[in-house]
Hints:
Elements (H helix, E strand, L loop, with lengths): L7 H12 L7 H4 L3 H21 L2 H24 L5 H15 L1 H4 L8 H18 L15 H13 L8 H21 L2 H21 L4 H24 L10 H15 L3
Pfam family, one: MazG
GO molecular function: ATP diphosphatase activity
Family: Belongs to the nucleoside triphosphate pyrophosphohydrolase family.
Amino acid sequence: MTESPTSPIDRLNAIMARLRDPVGGCPWDVEQTFQTIAPYTLEEAYEVADAIERGDWDELRSELGDLLFQVVFHARMAEEQGLFGFDDVANAIADKLERRHPHVFGDEAAKPDSAAQKARWEDIKAAERKGKDQHGVLDDVPVGLPALARAAKLTKRAARVGFDWPSTDEVFDKFVEEVAELRAEIAAGDLDKAREEIGDLLFVMANLARKLGVEPEDALRRTNAKFVRRFAFIEAELAKDGRTPEQSDLAEMDGLWNAAKMAEHPR
Length: 267
């Protein structure tokens, strides 16, 4: 009989190996690939963010486990193909953290504040990109990021080399310009160009969020949650009369929406 794994991560890796075993494993797990698992990896990351947003720490523990399982899953598939294993993944991030914190693990003096230290971090990352033969400023901004998050990261990276508006005033001017262009394309009935202008408008908003130090994905997540919460208030109020939103009208629902706002932020 083989000895039982001695640590939780060893146990998890052993479970993953068993699930992927072509003989006696789980047929679903066995047939998965990097491509088929990737969407689940993204989903689990979002569920981690959702648990944090709701302040549900028991759920966060569970969701972090689900996310860790995704890492183990990918590492196991890579090991089966002779690419790398879980220990290589762990060592890679450990090496990176030590390399990017020379003020902690090396002999470099710490910067005076977190902003200066973050700038030093970015310098180290830039040097790493050159070592990977990624010479373009935007070369390694992941294409798979959510579009708003990627827009903010693209503008942040461009800003590091001086391609940025001096203040938020210019961003607001650009926003007004893009709104006018969108209105013109809608009036012209050109859906393709209107779609492009909507993209431009969203990009400007992501840039504004970046300049204000706001994560656009987080901001939109909060607004989504607020919309769901307030619409639920509308449904609950209508239900008191035995009605549904379909049995109401815009004027009444708009009034209830404002009541929901007042309930959240009483003056």
